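ESCALATION

Customer reports they have been waiting on this structure for their group meeting. Please prioritize. Original submission:
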Amino acid sequence: MAVQYESADLGALKELLGVFAVAFEDHESYQSAVPSDEYLNKLLAREDFIPLVAIADGKVVGGLAAYVLQKFEQERSEIYIYDLAVLEEYRRQGIATGLINKLREIAWEIGAWVIYVQADPPDEPAVKLYESLGTREDVLHFDIEP
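Update from on-call: job pushed to the front of the queue and completed.
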């Protein structure tokens, strides 16, 4: 099976929302209020948003959404992987690693000094994937209501 890794356009980004809905079993977050084309096109035009998709069998089978964060303590940036998922029937074929490797290329091109991602401990496959690619840091995450 040949897999292509590329930046998402509008159509692929909408497909990726569907992949996230299925993979995360969270249709409410990813499908109940899909943003307008205008909103998504503005997001796609931003230099600090990196949407990547994995295409196999003529469809989006996985992808990630990452954000470039400009730091203030030094002239450098970080990339945060906000979401990454692969459809279940395409897992364990190196697609998630391929997506991260494509993001690594982009990080190198823009001079980012690190890529980071969070994983929930119960999600053992994600934890194992990220441990195989980077250094683990145990931190706490807090959601603060506006």
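Sent to customer with the following note: The CA atoms of residues 50 and 66 lie 5 Å apart.
Escalation resolved.
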